[in-house]
Amino acid sequence: MSEIDKSMNCFLLPHPRIIKTFIDKEMNERLAPYGVTASQGPFILAIGQHDGINLKQLSDEVMVDKALTTRTVKLLIDNGLAENTGNGSRYSIVLTDRGRDMCSVIGNNLHEVTDMMTSDLSREELETFRICMTKIHRTLADKIGTEEK
pLDDT digit of tens for each residue in the chain (149 aa)? Predict the structure, then answer.
């Protein structure tokens, strides 16, 4: 394998971390006035998209372990963003009115942060990036056996 091939194989390694760090920093600053953290955002968005979702489904959707999901859902319930409409230990998680409002706030801010990250890209570069990321996503989804493709 040539040096160029080796560098192409490793080019993705540093990028996800810096992207996540940037998104977390920006989203934490924007969501702090609402008492919400960037790490809670994906949970709120997923519950908003899947009304009545259970803990396993939510864990799968956000791609984290069930223990983290359980802790986060407890925080969301305690903070009045979500509620469990299930019986006993059977969770059926829905957003409260405040949670639905936060879902919009998170979505709007996430779009703004994404626009900041991609501001130096032309329309053609963005489309090429979208196509490449979609292909990578499908490949990885096939390899790890997720439903999302």
Answer: 556 556 666 666 678 889 999 999 999 999 999 999 999 999 999 999 999 999 999 999 999 999 999 999 999 999 999 999 998 778 999 999 999 999 999 999 999 999 999 999 999 999 999 999 899 889 988 888 765 54
Residue type, 148: E
Boundaries of every domain in the chain? 3-117, 120-149
pTM over 0.70: yes
Token representation of residue 104:
């919009």
Q: Which CATH number fits domain 3-117: 1.10.540.10, 3.30.70.260, 1.10.10.10, 1.10.3720.10?
A: 1.10.10.10
The answer to whether the Cα torsion of 122, 123, 126, 132 is positive or negative is negative
Handedness of CA 26, 115, 133, 7 (dihedral sign): negative
